[in-house]
Structure formats: C-alpha cells, structure tokens
Amino acid sequence: MLNLRKIAAILAGKLIAALSRMAGNQGTNLPGKIALEIYPQLLHELGQNIEKDIFLVTGTNGKTTTANMIAEIFKASGNTYVHNQAGANMLPGITTALLEHTDITGQKKLDYAVLETDEANVPLVIAEIKPRMILITNFFRDQLDRYGELDSTINLIKKSVSNTEIELLLNADDPLQLTFQASSSTKYWHYGLDVTNYDSFNGSESREGRYCILCGQELEYTRYHYSQLGKYHCPQCDIINPAPDFLATDLHLENGIDMQIDSMSITSPFQGLHNAYNILAAVSLAKLAGIEEEFIQSAIANYQPTAGRMEKFKILGKKVVLVLVKNPTGLNQSLATLVQDPAVKNLFIALNDNAADGRDISWIWDADVEVISSDQAHINQIICSGKRSGDMAVRIKYSGFEPAPIVVKPSLEEGIESAIRRESEACYILCTYTALFASRKILLRMQKKYPELEPERKKAPGKML
Amino acid sequence: MEKFIIAHMYPDLMNLYGDRGNLLCLQKRMEWYGLNCEIKNISLHEDLEFSQFDMIFMGGGSDREQNLVCGHLLKRTDQLMKLIESGLPALFICGAYQMLGSYYKAQDGNVIDGLGIFPFHTECRQGRLIGNILIETEINGRKTSVVGFENHGGRTYFTDPIIKSLGKVIKGYGNNGEDKTEGLIYKNLIGTYLHGPLLPKNPVLADFFIHNMTDRKGIKLNRVLDDTIEKIAHEQVKNKILAE
Ligand SMILES: [Zn+2]
C-alpha cells in the first residue's frame, strides 16, 4: 500500500530543493527539515533503501574531503551511492540528501550511503539509521570549544555506539580517540602514518590533546605529524598509539601527495599532510568496503580538490590556490602547506566575521602564523582583506613578518587582483567561509579572462614595426 | 639591554579566546622599543614568587579551572596585593578578572570564593553577553576608545564606589549589561571582559603597561612606534560596532 504521508513529505522536500536551487541558494537543510516535519520516520525508512552499507564520516577537520573521496571511489567502482553536500551534515541536511536520491514513493535502492555527519549529530543520526561503520578523522578543539564540549561530544558518540554492531574506523595517531579503546563491545580498525620527513619533534603549535584521556597525565611524544597527531605514549598508564591496520609509508608532499598504503601506491593532486590523512582514511574505508584496489587508485588519482580545499587556478600564467580556513588548526595546516611549496608567492587572507564565520575572530591569535617568516616560506607580499582585514594585518605584523609588505584591502576584488598582479610565482588565497564563494567567483572570472600572462606586458613598448 | 619578565599565569588552564595574542603583542612591542622581554609560564606546580616579575598576565578559563587556580593563588594573595598596591602592572581578563573579586556565584547557585582583592562580586546568569564591544576610557589623562569582543555569562557588580571601572560602555554589555561600566582599573592593574585579543588593536593600552614597566625600572622610552596597521584595525572595528 502506498504511504501517502511519506509521498507528501518526499514531494514537498523535492519541491523546496528545486525551488531553492532555482533561486540560486544551496538550500540543503530546509527540504529535509520540512519533510521530517511532515513524516518523522522518513530518514529511518529511506535509510533502509541502502542495500550494502551506510558509512558516517565525522570528526573536526577533513570530513568533507574524506567523504568526497569515498564517494569518488564508489563512483569509480560502479556502485550507486548517496552522499550529502558539503556542510549539510546535520539531521535535516542528511535527510535532504537521501530524499533527493530517492523516487517519489521512496523505494529506490542504492548500494552505499556516505554521510558526512557533524560530531554532535552522530547520536541523532544513528538513532534513525544503522550505519555499518563510523569513520573518525580527528578531534581538534577550536576557540569556542574550551569548556569541555569536545570531551562530552566524544563521550556521546562513544555511548551511542556501545552495545551496537557499529564498527569504528579510527585515527591511530590521535590520542583523543583512545576514548573508544575502553568500549569493548565495538569492533574497531585503525589507520595511521608511519614516520614521515615532515614530522617535528617539539610542541610549538597549540597541541590540544596533549593530556592522556585515560588518566590525565601529560603525554610524551617522539614525533608530531601535526597538531596533536603523532607518536605518543603516556608515562603513567603506558598506553601508546594502537597499531594501524592501514599504515601509510613513504610519504612525499613536494608535488601533490604520493604514498604507499600497505601494498598500494597512491598518488593525488591534493596538497598537504592533512590531506594525506584524509586520503588514508578514505582508502582504508574503501578497503573495508571491499572495493578493488585499481578503482581506489584511479579514483584518488583523478579526484581534483573542490571549492576551497586547495582548489587550483591558473591566472596570468601563475598557480593560484584557494583555501578555506575556519579555525586555528586549519590555518596552521594551510600555512604549513604553503611553506612546503618552494615557489615564491604572494599570500592573500580574507577574514570575515559574519555569523557563519564566527563573530569572534580572536582564534587567529591561536594559530602559529609565525611560520610565514621562516626562510623556506618565500613570501613576497601579504594582502589582508575582508571585514576584519585590519585584525588580520595586525596578527601578521605581530608574527614578526616585516611590516612593509603587509597591505590592507577590505574589498575582496581589489585584494585578489593586487595579490595576483604583484610579482610572484604563485598566489595563495585563504578565506573564511563567507568570503570563500565570492573569492572563488572572482578567481573563475579572472582565470577565464587572463589565463596567461597578458600580451601587452610581454611586448616591450616601441618595438612595433 | 634591560630585561623584563612577564608572568603568564597558568597558560595550560587559563587560555581562552586568543589570550596569547596579548602576550605576543607586549613582547613584540618591547622588542621594537629595544627592550628584552621574557614570557615566563607559571603552572600549578610552581611556588609563587611574584616579586621577580615586571608584569602579571592571566586569561580566562572554565569554572573548574578557575577553582584550581584560585586555590593556588590564595597562598600568595597577600604578596600579590602588596605588589598591586605598589604599582605592579597586571592584566586580568574574563575569568581571571572575576577571580579578583570576593566571590563568583555560578548558575546552579554554587558560590566560589574569589581572591577578595577588590570589593566586587560576579553572578552568573542565563544568557551569555556576547559580541563586539566599544568603550571609552581615560589613559594618562587622555580620552581613548577601546575595542574588543566579550563573551561572558557572569555579571560583575562593584560593592564599593572606591573602585573605578576601566571605562564607559558605548556599545556592548560590559561588567553587567546594566550600568554601562566595563572592567576595573586600579593603579597599574586592569581587569576586563574584553578579549579579541585586547592589546594588539588597542596599542594605547599595550603602551600603558610597557611604560609602567619601564618607569618602575627608571628607564625612559624615547622611541615612538609606527602604529598605522594597529590604527587601521582599531578604526575598522570601531566603525563596524558603531554601525551595528
Ligand atoms: Zn595515561
């Protein structure tokens, strides 16, 4: 028998999604929200249309990139899947994704679901749909999160998976994920990095996970990969990193990412150590899902970064890289990636303080901006933009960077033009959330208009015959 | 070169909202003035001896952390009071500021004793006071605007008119969201809810502390720093707040 209420909910959701797309909005939450109001069991029932496995991807940073990579692998291997859009990672957004991928009666079957899920929403989502596995990228505290909210979020996730058959795929290098060790009812897998050439041996960055989550003692590290991810042990309870089931070795970051994951060679156009982790996590999950290696390799090799995740442009013959930054860890990673790039570059940073960026911009002082002054950074000029360009310029000045080449241009358009036109081999465009899409539009337009160095500039005046 | 030591009290526990920016600011400016400044991190395991410091800085933390810290500080409160009285520069932000008063009443009604150095108390109520804030203050006889960001559940009330607020709230909440006062200034000590962080975009306040430190050592600063970028940031936030 047809369930009319369910059909009404799906229709309403699909209609709202179509309308908001026509209006040029991303509108990824509203359709799911309305549909759930009409038919609260909708998510639960749509979840039953997934024939093979449902995977949740959660953690503080990297979940969008990791989930996208998993989706690419499923696509390359010829599986059907549903995957929610970047940022639409709470209950309504996940519902939207599922209802957009179903037919009007809500019966259409798919092989997999890859659902990027906000950390705090994990218990809510698994109350509705039963995933086979939850992949956790990492847990970092950000500035709004120093009242122990992260610890309680981790505990809630732990509680919601205990006494279930849900498997966990965990980061062996993240000491905060040791919390899950104690829950014996769960099956877990670990991925981790071997020693790399990019490790550091001291704790200059703000290392938030540096206390043992089991006994409270300060952890000792023999290496840091980045932030609190590394090779640690607790001097009190003797706990060390779990042995990885999936180990990445021979990591090279000079030209994209190259590494070996167990017996498989992996190459990716992405950049930076944090993306090596995202790839490692995605590949580990794909292996556990039983996808053949050739599909995994080709999907990762062909997958290009999307908006704001180290997306590359070519303007005036220069490499221009667009990066989203939203918290100190993200800014640290972006700056570390920039320093690893040997090109001489200009740096553009747009800092906004709209609600979606976070009204409080004090987090820029928790990032280790000081790396831009190192000799390997090769930065010619820094252009600060956005509504809080002044604050960003002050942060740069107090990092010890010579004040002369710091330019303040609140307008994104002028700032980006100026960063690209000034002398350099490459440009890094760092943006907070609300500056990202506007900046991307400007870059796309410039790329179309002047992909190569302008001919007028090549021609010396007076040489015309 | 004359050496100065600034104590960063409990950076592991009391470190919210970019507090380290205030220290980075002091350290860099002192370097630009030709002075040598060392930041000394003080932890709970250390014996406190305040007389070795040229300035004290403490940032915000959660209730649990404030309790731990308060217990440790209580042992040396008498020495701290004497030094504040004799003009020791000190900056206390958010939770650290609240701790200088007689008590803090949490939302569940629990009363946590403060250090009792100044006659004020704080009560935590529902609804955090969050947002950009602009105040007007007077530093060394000169009117000046101060900008920052506040985020606190506590409402602070002075119980004796003998103490003076740091300034008047032009936009924002301040001490309690009612009486248009913000913070506390006493000799060379400032307590405030403003972070953002405070000193980098209010260089007048940063120099207030630096001049107090050098005066106490009998050093005269002749150099004037170029604050063009700081002023751009200050004006940008100020205009934004006034337009909100
Ligand atoms: Zn331990």
Describe the structure.
Chain A has 465 residues and is α/β, with parallel strands linked by helices. Chain A has two domains: 4-302, UDP-N-acetylmuramoyl-L-alanine:D-glutamate ligase, CATH 3.40.1190; 309-456, Mur ligase, C-terminal domain (Protein-Tyrosine Phosphatase, Chain A, Alpha-Beta Complex), CATH 3.90.190.20. Chain A contains 14 helices and 17 strands. Chain A has helices spanning 4-22, 30-38, 42-47, 63-76, 91-100, 122-128, 149-161, 273-288, 293-302, 328-340, 389-398, 412-421, 433-449, 455-458, and strands at 50-58, 81-83, 110-116, 133-136, 167-171, 187-193, 220-226, 229-233, 246-252, 257-261, 264-268, 309-315, 318-324, 345-350, 379-385, 406-408, 426-431. In chain A, the strands form three sheets. Chain A has a nine-stranded mixed beta sheet, with helices on both faces. Chain A has a six-stranded mixed beta sheet with strand order 12-13-17-14-15-16, with helices on both faces. In chain A, strand 7 (220-226) and strand 8 form a beta hairpin. By secondary structure, chain B is of the alpha/beta class. Chain B has a single domain (3-243), classed as 3-Layer(aba) Sandwich (Rossmann fold), CATH 3.40.50.880. Chain B contains six helices and twelve strands. The longest helix of chain B is centred in the C-terminal third of the chain and has 16 residues, at 228-243. The N and C termini of chain B lie far apart (46 Å). The relative contact order of chain B is 0.17. The A-B interface holds A 143, 146-148, 359-366, 387-391, 393-395, 397-400, 403, 406, 408, 410 and B 15-21, 24-25, 28, 61-62, 64, 130-132, 149, 151, 195-197, 200-201, 226, 229-230, 232-237, 240. The structure holds zinc ion. Zinc ion binds at residues 212, 214-215, 217, 234, 236-237, 239 of chain A.
